[in-house]
Amino acid sequence: MSQFYYWEDFFKGQIINCGTMTISESQILEFAGEYDPQRFHVSKEAAEKTLFKGLIASGWQTGAFMMRMVCDGFMANSSSVGSPGLDSLKWIKPIRPGDSLRTVVEILDTRALNSKPHLGMVQSKWSCYNQHDELTTTIEAWNMFEKRPNT
After folding, report:
1. Pick from 8, 45, 70, 79: most CB atoms within 10 A?
2. In 3D, which of 118, 141, 82, 101 has the Cα closest to residue 8?
3. Within a domain: residue 151?
């Protein structure tokens, strides 16, 4: 069984590899049709006429792909109780059909919460790369984790 992560298991400089996933054209079209129907997300023909010169995934969908990889990598097997929000989100390079993505999480800082002694905060930077090792997206945020129970 893999490790269950409590706040105490995170440390500054820690790197967590969160796996990979390949993105299909149908995933891009389905998400865009439902949530982000801009022409460069919903139509190959229209996307060819934009500065992207082809179909690309919504940045919001890229964030969802990253979230899935992070959950599979460790978050779903942790004491996470959520996040107060993102400090930054940057879409650096478009995601295209057939791209294989991987997400790496770097722990930037940790701190205890004095107001909630059973919780701690973890600041992290999520970096998403495509199959060419090109950085596509970054997210920086704080997450809250329960501390290890006293046993």
Report:
1. 70
2. 118
3. no
